[in-house]
Amino acid sequence: MLNKAGRDIPMNLPCLEGREVYQGEFALATNARRAGRPVRATRPGENKVVASIDEVIEKAGLKDGMSISFHHHFRNGDYVMKLVMERIHEKGIKDLTILSSSLAPCHEFLIDYIKDGTVTAIETSGLRDALGKFLSTNPGVLKRPVVIRSHGGRARAVSCGEAHIDVAFLGVPTCDPRGNATGMMGKAACGALGYAMVDAHFADKTVLITDNLVDYVYPYSIPQTDVDYVVEVEAIGDPAGIASGAIGITKNPVQLKIAELAAEFLDQADIIKEGFSFQLGAGGAPLAVAKFIGQKLKEKEVVGGFGVGGATGVLVGMLEDGLIKAIYDTQTFDTTAAASLHDNPNHIEMSASMYADPWTDCMTNYLDVVFLGATEVDVNFNVNCMTDSNGILMGASGGHSDTAAGAKVTVITCPLIRGRLPMIRENVQTVITPGTSVDVIVTERGLAINPNRQDLIEKFKDSNLPIYTIEELQKMAYDRVGKPQDVEVSDKDEDVVAIVEYRDGSIIDVVRKPLL
Predict the structure, then answer these.
(1) Which NCBIfam families does the UniProt record give (predicted)?
(2) What global pTM score does this model have?
């Protein structure tokens, strides 16, 4: 069945029975209610602290066929998932669904647990490296295809019970015996716990795992009312893999040129003004755009409204310099931003639901502009940030489609050519964000404005910026490196390795096994 993004969805797959295909950004009406976790009475003197992960698995009642969740705030420094999965494996518990907000290279150990049947389903936002390649090239190794969700789509699915969590195992950098927890302090401090907050609130059982158990925690990200058990371990993560020092602005000349053009577009579009709101990624080019925004705010003597994060030290610098009034943070990327979240009351932590759940009053709906990256784009302005040039799962949906749908202007930044391959294709390999959500594509050679935005085209008709049609930019790339061959993928339905949900739960695309 062809969906609104022009993708052919094999609706005869058992896992898609009763599902709807993507029909447009806001086409699917809300018809769900929030899920509720079981109510459990507590008595004075009860102790939530459990001696070991082994014991807490028993107390939580984990059994074959259940769903367990983890968060990715520790990124590639995460120890928690491995600590938990080793003990689950030793107990012989099988047929588990992993509901992780994302998966990093450090989680490749899951391959062994998939092979032996401990894990039989995965629902996530991101897949990378060895695990992504294994799942891309081994259809049928799980009992159903991987489900890829955006951050907002995952929050929606969890909060309405579509993605049910039996037990959430959540690493927290600091916790007290009652279960109040924060990511703002401790040796594994990661800053915001926006994804964990959702899981803790809606899971049937919530287990917090910490390496810094203290008497009292305040302010807290996760309250004791959402927590059933607390376990103290020696270490929950590698600080070097969790957060770097302040992320620096790129020195790459191609990225700098992209940032320069993107920032100039922003200025000429009259977006930089009193109270405007924005989101920038943590990559080098977006941070260079942030520096330009700061300069323009100073020149105009105006103050921006708020920035949305993934927070970085660059964004924090704008807050401390009085260039913006607030930061709303669901995931913190560096140590400078983590310290700011702890110290500055105008640096505000928010859950993934508040960030991007399409069935709530989410912050993405208040963005004036968002800058996003891409693995590739196509002549219909569709964006792929999930599979690489050979069709392997290697990225993350993240908040890409969420912010693109909500922002008044969505700007995609990507090089015209990457690794001798043109980045503007006839059709992207995987649609994560539909072209109807994208307004401008910026490369180092020039910009293309979506024909749907005739208001912007009219505004820039006399601009000195290098503005082309998307087809003209594509031709520039083809003239330099040639037209690429399409990735060959299996046309067998049994070779579908992943289902890509749009943020409202409809199916926007599928990922098929590449014929390498």
Answers:
(1) citF (TIGR01584)
(2) 0.96
Q: What tokens appear for 86 in the block?
A: 């080793």
Vertex 38 angle, CA 33 and 43, to 5°: 140
* Distances from the Cα of 329 to the Cα of 164, 287, 311, 344, angstroms: 25, 16, 6, 12
For 61-106, the pLDDT digits (tens) are: 999 999 999 999 999 999 999 999 999 999 999 999 999 999 999 9
Q: Domain range holding 406?
A: 253-488
Whether 287 and 312 have beta carbons less than 8 Å apart is answered as yes
Instruction: Report whether pLDDT(40) > 70.
Output: yes
Is residue 316, in this structure, part of any structural domain at all? yes
Farthest CA pair distance, the chain: 74
Q: Are 107 and 101 in contact (CB under 8 A)?
A: no
Task: Write the pLDDT tens digit of every residue in 269-323.
Answer: 999 999 999 998 766 677 788 888 888 899 999 999 999 988 988 899 999 999 9
Contact indicator for 127, 135 with CB cutoff of 8 Å: yes
Is the residue at 501 inside a domain?
no
- DSSP strands (E only) in 409-514: 409-413, 417-418, 421-422, 424-425, 440-442, 447-449, 467-468, 496-501, 507-512
Task: Report the CATH number at residue 176.
Answer: 3.40.1080.10
Across the chain, mean pLDDT equals 94
C-beta separation of 120 from 15 below 8 A: no
Q: Are residues 331 and 447 in the same domain?
A: yes
**H-type alpha helices, 41-99:** 53-60, 80-90
Peptide bond into 219 cis (omega under 30): yes
